[in-house]
């Protein structure tokens, strides 16, 4: 019999409190579908009483693939001067017609007297009355004990009485909230132990915020102390420093302790779910994110690399495939020939460690790294370098010349960047010009224009990121420049690099590699 | 009597194992200086035996403001077939001539037999012998017990014997390492309790990795269980998912538990240190980062906002000022004015809080921050902005126009960058041209050439650093470029900023500010 923990996702409600998170209703429905497919038990869609836009979601999700039973709505206890029947907030909750409702109430005596400005006993009535009412209307009513841990530390006896009020109303689960995110992992377990002396086997949940960088740890500790329901958000979105990241909580509980949070065969979709929801939110992927990040199983140090090639458990806490991720070996001045062979195999190149061409690649690599090249994040350039050095690359075009002019004067509203480019494909010459937002964008536009006649597939390729690093300090604008370009098409993303004293030249190299890589991959597909 | 915990920073060694972290030697020295100023006890500079580039750092740091006593170097136990006297790694450690050395050794029996391929007892000798040897040569020798927690779980008895070998050699501290980052917060305390039954009061340290999203929590728990030395990195840089983030560990221990990690009056520099080191590494600031992030004390929800305006502790776990951060209310940002007045006084401007011009500066600042301007590291631009908005700045010259051409073709050995610039000083026009290594350098050369006739003091000014960051604002895909320029003369250094879609334009703004600031300061001196 495997132990179960209920995952209650609040990405669509608490997650959208984040400064940089903003989903359309259509996005929210897609996210709900992705979470349901992934096996998340409850998906909180919004706060109908506080945000009218959320009402649109509850309508829209009814036409989706997500069964009603998995959708929850959020609100608060009724106001002191109203009955539940005429409290707008409570009624707004019922109007969205979902079977699961969560309301929050005050635990901290200070908030009752200072924010609500009511008597302590009256707050107990609000909690009990609101939950009792909702219990007659829907399948499940959950209770979020706001500021539970701060309230407990301020007035333990009163905090426990608020929980008792929710228990008496037969709330389906009582969730202990670390609303301000200030609770330390060394105290959370002992507080929960004390609570359970009073609540016994009553189902308890946990809702953590990450203000002390401990939200995931606190959630895991809570489960080890008997909590059966965990609230959190995908990728830890949320106000301030975010909520507990369920992309970390789920694999921690499932892989380290054997709890079932999502069906066993679904865990391998973890990385895909994380990336997909980042994409919908137009948020950048954190390469270092535990379990799902691109670097989560990436090895750079030579000691580590030679060890993982013998036995991957030596420097990996889990098998990356369990969460849909994979092992990567990075190229850097710390490593050597064994990394290269690993990479070559990754690229599908048939390479023997005794092949003298491998030494030529090592030499070329050292030479470029001394110049300031860096192939982490630019694996496409590295693959091209490897193929070119080993003689397995046929050029798609020749670059003849470029020229770019940037101009600004007091008669102009904004500066002008204009580029001309000359290239040759199979002896045929193309000479074009284009404008752009800046010199690099202008050259990029001109090259594509020149090549598009020969390679129409370049149309579906776009630049997604462009990074510039000045390498030698102390020489100001004469310094060596490294440019990293990230491109994407419908199949995925790839990175390329260029290094030169001239930033335009460095950018040109990275752009050229990016285009050559795209053409190479498309040719391989044929 | 306040309890103390030693902070041992490994940003410059373990931090550089991160896929996207790459510091020049000059950057590393600046980081060491910043960490020393912040009050960090030990700064690990690198691994001389593994990375020849690190040796350069140890040479360079001797000329810095950081006393030797705070610098540490990292290495491993001697190899099985060598004595310490002829082991390259051990000797490389001694050659960098620092008083603190840390070596790692194997705890996990599997690694001893599989990776080192030696007998278990022989590994104990390596540990004891290497540490005993180093103890005769330097002030302090620390021992990193690699894979301690995994090793302990695999073979408790052997893991404890490895610690005993280090204790017998009188290592100054024994650091328990969660090398793979897989240890759960619910088990770390009990394992340390078991260890301490054997080690008693022997000083123990902790070194956590973040693969399970628990590195900060595990470090804090370890301290509550008697650990006195914490290793980690600034902003959690490090291989895979990073190391324990000391920007979170320090305030957790200091503000929540009253441990002294850095001097009490230094904690308010936390945010500045975090940002500064991100800037040096050209790494993006994580707005949600606990304690130091721009959003860490930002409130969006209406309930929260009205509550914090009454009492900030209602939704903030600490006072943001304690770590140099500030409360922000999104959409209706009312704060900032007092900061501005503080800054104005800093610049020697006589400003009254009731002066309506202060509001104009607040408005202008908001407008620029929305465009992507950032004035950390660019205070010279901020001072110019303030003076210009308040009407206390007299221009030294007018910029009329610039044009820059970058050209490359197959007949040229390297690309050509040529700039023309037109400026006016007191009605007198100057039109010059200059070449450069790239478009920005060419413009820089041309402007100076044009101005030197009027302001010969520009001769002793030079650009020392130039950083480019591509920002993507909002939901759009249009890239905005931010350029930070650092300049110096005989009196000191100053930073300026420019933001535009066109990189040349952004650079031009930063260069202009840099020159104007120099002319302003020289005039003030007269």
TrEMBL record, chains A, B:
It holds the Pfam family HMGL-like. It catalyses: pyruvate + acetyl-CoA + H2O = (3R)-citramalate + CoA + H(+). Pathway: Amino-acid biosynthesis; L-isoleucine biosynthesis; 2-oxobutanoate from pyruvate: step 1/3. The keyword Coiled coil does not apply. Keywords: Amino-acid biosynthesis, Branched-chain amino acid biosynthesis, Isoleucine biosynthesis, Transferase. Its EC number is 2.3.3.21. The keyword Calcium does not apply. NCBIfam families: citramal_synth. This is Citramalate synthase. It comes from Denitrovibrio acetiphilus (strain DSM 12809 / NBRC 114555 / N2460).
């Amino acid at each position: 019999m495997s132990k179960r923990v209920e995952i209650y996702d609040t990405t669509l409600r608490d997650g959208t409190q984040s400064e940089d998170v903003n989903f359309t209703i259509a996005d929210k429905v897609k996210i709900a579908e992705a979470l349901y497919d992934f096996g998340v038990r409850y998906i909180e869609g919004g706060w109908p009483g506080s945000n009218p836009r959320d009402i649109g979601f509850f309508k829209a999700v009814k036409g989706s693939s997500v069964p009603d039973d998995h959708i929850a709505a959020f609100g608060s206890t009724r106001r002191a001067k109203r009955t539940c029947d005429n409290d707008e907030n409570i009624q707004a909750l019922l109007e969205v017609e979902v079977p699961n409702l969560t309301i929050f109430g005050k635990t901290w005596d200070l908030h009752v007297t200072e924010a609500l400005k009511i008597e302590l006993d009256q707050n107990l009535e609000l909690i009990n009355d609101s939950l009792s009412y909702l219990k007659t209307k829907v399948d499940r009513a959950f209770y979020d004990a706001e500021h539970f841990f701060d309230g407990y530390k301020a007035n333990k006896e009163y905090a426990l009485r608020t929980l008792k009020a929710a228990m008496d109303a037969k709330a389906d689960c009582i969730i202990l909230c670390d609303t301000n995110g200030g609770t330390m992992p060394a105290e959370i377990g002992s507080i929960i132990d004390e609570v359970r002396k009073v609540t016994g086997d009553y189902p308890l949940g946990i809702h953590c915020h990450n203000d002390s960088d401990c939200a995931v740890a606190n959630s895991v500790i809570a489960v080890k102390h008997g909590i059966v329901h965990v609230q959190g958000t995908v990728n830890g979105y949320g106000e301030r420093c975010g909520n507990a990241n369920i992309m970390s909580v789920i694999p921690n509980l499932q892989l380290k302790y054997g709890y079932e949070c999502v069906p066993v065969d679904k865990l391998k979709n973890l990385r895909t779910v994380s990336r997909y929801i980042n994409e919908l939110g137009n948020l950048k992927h954190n390469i270092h994110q535990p379990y799902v990040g691109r670097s989560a199983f990436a090895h750079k140090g030579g000691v580590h690399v030679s060890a993982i090639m013998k036995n991957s458990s030596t420097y990996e806490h889990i098998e990356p495939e369990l969460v849909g991720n994979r092992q990567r070996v990075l190229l850097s001045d710390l490593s050597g020939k064994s990394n290269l062979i690993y990479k070559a195999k990754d690229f599908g190149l048939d390479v023997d460690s005794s092949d003298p061409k491998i030494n030529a690649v090592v030499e070329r690599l050292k030479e470029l790294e001394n110049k300031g090249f860096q192939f982490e994040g630019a694996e496409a350039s590295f693959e091209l370098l490897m193929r070119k050095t080993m003689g397995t690359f046929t050029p798609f075009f020749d670059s003849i010349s470029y020229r770019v002019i940037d101009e600004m004067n007091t008669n102009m509203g904004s500066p002008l960047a204009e580029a001309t480019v000359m290239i040759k494909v199979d002896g045929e010459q193309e000479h074009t010009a284009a404008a752009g937002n800046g010199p690099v964008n202008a050259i990029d536009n001109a090259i594509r224009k020149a090549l598009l006649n020969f390679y129409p597939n370049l149309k579906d390729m776009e630049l997604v990121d462009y990074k510039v690093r000045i390498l030698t300090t102390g020489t100001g604008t004469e310094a060596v420049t490294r440019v990293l370009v990230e491109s994407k098409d419908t199949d995925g993303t790839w990175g390329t690099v260029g290094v030169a004293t001239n930033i335009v030249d460095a950018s040109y190299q990275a752009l050229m590699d990016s285009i050559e890589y795209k053409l190479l991959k498309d040719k391989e597909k044929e």
